[in-house]
Amino acid sequence: MMDKSEAELVAVTKSYGQSIAVDGISLKIPGNSYTCLLGPSGCGKSSTLRMLAGHETVSEGDILLGGKNITDLAPAERGTAMMFQSYALFPHLSVVDNVAFSLKMKGVEKTARRAEATKLLDLVDMAALAERLPAQLSGGQQQRVALARALITNPSILLLDEPLSALDPFLRLRMRSELKRLQRELGISFIHVTHSQDEALSLADRIIVMNKGRIEQVGSAQEVFDRPKTQFVAQFMGGHNVMHDGQSRLAIRSDKITIAKSNPDGSAGIPATVRAIEYLGTTFSVALDATGMAQTSNPVSVTVPDSVFSHETMEIGQTVFLTWMPDDAHRLAS
Amino acid sequence: MSSKQNFSDALSGWLMAAPLVIVLALFLVLPIAMIVVVSFWGATEFSIYPAFKLDNYEFLLRSSVTYSVYLKTFMFTIISWALCLVIGFTVAYFLAFHVRTQTWQIVLFLLCTVPFWTSNIIRMISWVPFLGRNGIANQTLMSMGVIEQPLEWLLFSDFAVVLAFVHLYTLFMVVPIFNTMMRIDKSLLEAARDAGATGFQTLTNVILPLTKPGIMIGSIFVVTLVMGDFITVRFMSGSQSANVGRLISNDVALLRYPSAAATSVVLLITVLITIGIMLRFVNIRKEL
C-alpha cells in the first residue's frame, strides 16, 4: 500500500514570464520523513514548497501525493497544510479561534470545533493561552499556534516555510528539536524550507540542495555533508575546501586535512603559508595560502583540535605542509 | 538644581504644545463658544441683542418642523452612508486585492480622485443636463423605448440628492478602507485559503473584520459631511427638500442669527452623539 504522505514531483517547472524559478525538477519524498529543501535565497525552494501547497500554479509537470495527482487541486483539497514564514495568524481572532478556523470554514459547530482546537493546543503546549490574541504572544508561542492551526486539518504533509527564521537563536534550537519530535509522533511527512545548513543537517532525514531552480544533490544529511557531489554543494554546506589536483576538483573537509611543519616524505605534502589563525573554543581555524596547488579555493581552511594545536603552535607567515587521506578527498562533478 | 530642571522641562513642554493650543483655541473653541453664547440671545425683525433666554431652543424643540427635518436628515444620512459603504468597500477591495501591481494601484487610485479636481458645486451642477426633463438619461431611455414620458423624479428630488451625496462622498469611504486593506498581510489570505475558506468566507471572516477600523473612519467622514450639508440638498432637490443645514442657512439668510446658532448647537450635539454611538462598535485607535 502506498503511504499517504509520500509525495512526488515529476518534471515540475515554475516560470514567471521569462524568468524560470524552478527548472523541471523531479523528486520523490518518502512517507513519514523529515525533508529539508536547502539553498540560497532565489534558488526556487520556496516556489517548490508553494507549488506543493497549491499557492502557486505549476507551469509544467505534475505533483503527486499518496499516488494521487494533486497538481490542479485547491490547497485545502490536497491533504497538505502550510505553516507560513511570518506565521500568518489572524490578528483579530483568539488563539483557539485561529486554530479552529478551518473547522469553522467547514461549518463545524462552535463548541465542537473549540474542543478539537484545544486538543491541538495541548499537543503544542499552548492550551493555557487559548483566549489570548496573537499580538499578546511571543514569537515562539505564535509559532506553536501556527503549528496547531496547520495540524488541525490532519494533513498528510506539513509544509514549513522558513519556520525558524523569525526566532532568536536560543528558541530556534528548542523549536528545532520540537519540530523533529512532532514529526516522529505524528508519523506524517514534514517538508521544511530553509537556507540554514545547521538547521537542515540537524533536522532532516533527507536534504535536497537546490541552486538556480535545479536540484544539486539529494541525500541523507551525512551524505550531503560528507560527500558533496558538486562544487556548489561543497561550498554551500561549508566546512569544505575545494582543491584542484590537475584532473578534477576535489572537496576535502577542513577537519580532515593535517598540517605538518616539515615534509618527511618529500612529495606528499602540499606547501602552504599560514595567513590567519582563529580560536573557536574547541578548535582552531587556520587559514592558509596553498601556493603549490593550482585553482584552490583560497584561502584553504583547516580545522585543528585545540589539544593538537596547543603542542604544535604555528605562527603567521610560517610555511607548512598539508596532507590528507585519499579517501577523504571527494571528486566533484564538473 | 533638580527643581529648576523640572521647571524648564515643564516649560518646554508647554511651549511645544502652545502653537497647536493657540490655533485650536482661536479657530475651533472660540467660534463654537461664540455660537453657544449667541444661541441664547434674543432677536427682533431687524436686530439681535445680547440676553440669556431659552426662547430659541424652546421654539426649535417644540416645532414639529424640526422633527420632520431631522427625520429627513437621518434618512439622507443612512441611505447615502449605506450606498457609499457598499460602493466604497467594493472599489477599495478591487484596488487592494485584485489589482496586482503597485503601479496600477496608484494609477487607478488617482483616477478615483480626478473628480475632486473640480469643486463640489460644479460636480453637482454637472448632473443637471444629465438628469433633467430633457436630459441625456431621459432622452436615452425614451429613444430605447423603455419609457414613454420623461421621468420626473430624476432631478430635483430626494433621489437626486442621494445620488449627489454618493457621488460626492464615496471617495471618503474608499480612501480609509483602501488604506486599511493595504495593511492586511497577504499571507493571511493564503492562510485562509489553506484552511479551506472560499473567497466569500475569506471576505467575511478575515477581510471584513480587519477592515472595520477603516470602514468606521470612512463612515464618520460620510455621516458628518452629509449631516452638515445644505447646498447639495438645496441644489439637487430644487429647494423641495429640507435638512438641518438648510434650516440654519434659511435662518442666516433672514438674519435670525440666535435661532441659527441654537439650531447649530443642537445639530452639533446630534452629530457628536451619532459618532459616539458609532465608536462604541469599533476601536479605531490602532488605526490612528
Description:
With 334 residues, chain A is of the alpha+beta class. Chain A has 10 helices and 18 strands. The two termini of chain A are 40 Å apart. Chain B has a two-stranded antiparallel sheet. Chain B has helices at residues 2-38, 55-62, 64-98, 102-113, 120-125, 128-131, 136-143, 158-182, 186-194, 199-228, 231-237, 244-253, 257-281; strands at 42-43, 48-49. In chain B, strand 1 (42-43) and strand 2 form a beta hairpin. Chain B is flat. Helix content of chain B is 75%, strand content 1%. Chain B has a single domain (64-287), classed as MetI-like fold (Orthogonal Bundle). Chain A binds chain B through residues 53-55, 74-76, 81-82, 84-86, 88-92, 101-102, 104-106, 149-150, 153, and chain B through 185, 187-188, 190-198, 201, 205-206, 209-210.
Key features?
heterodimer, A: 334 residues, alpha+beta, six-stranded mixed sheet, 10 helices, B: 288 residues, mainly alpha, MetI-like fold, two-stranded antiparallel ribbon, 13 helices, flat
Query: Mind telling me the CATH superfamily name of chain B?
Result: MetI-like
- Rg for CA atoms of chain A: 24 Å
> Looking at CATH, which topology of chain B would you report?
MetI-like fold
Largest sheet of chain A: 6 strands, mixed
Report the count of strand segments of chain B.
2
Shape of chain B: flat
How helix-rich are the residues of chain A, as a percent range? 25-40%
Please outline what is shown here.
Chain A has ten helices and 18 strands. With 334 residues, chain A is an alpha+beta fold.
Layout of secondary structure:
The complex is a heterodimer of chains A (334) and B (288).
Chain A: E1 7-16, E2 19-29, E3 34-38, H1 45-53, E4 60-65, E5 68-69, E6 80-83, H2 95-99, H3 101-106, H4 110-123, H5 139-151, E7 157-161, H6 169-186, E8 189-194, H7 197-203, E9 206-211, E10 214-219, H8 221-226, H9 231-237, E11 240-244, E12 249-253, E13 258-260, E14 270-279, E15 283-289, E16 300-305, H10 306-310, E17 319-323, E18 329-331
Parallel strand pairs in A: 3-8, 3-9, 6-7, 7-8
Antiparallel strand pairs in A: 1-2, 1-4, 4-5, 9-10, 11-12, 12-18, 13-17, 14-15, 14-17, 15-16
Helix pairs in contact in A: 4-5
Chain B: H1 2-38, E1 42-43, E2 48-49, H2 55-62, H3 64-98, H4 102-113, H5 120-125, H6 128-131, H7 136-143, H8 158-182, H9 186-194, H10 199-228, H11 231-237, H12 244-253, H13 257-281
Antiparallel strand pairs in B: 1-2
Helix pairs in contact in B: 1-13, 3-8, 3-10, 8-10, 8-11, 9-10, 10-13, 12-13
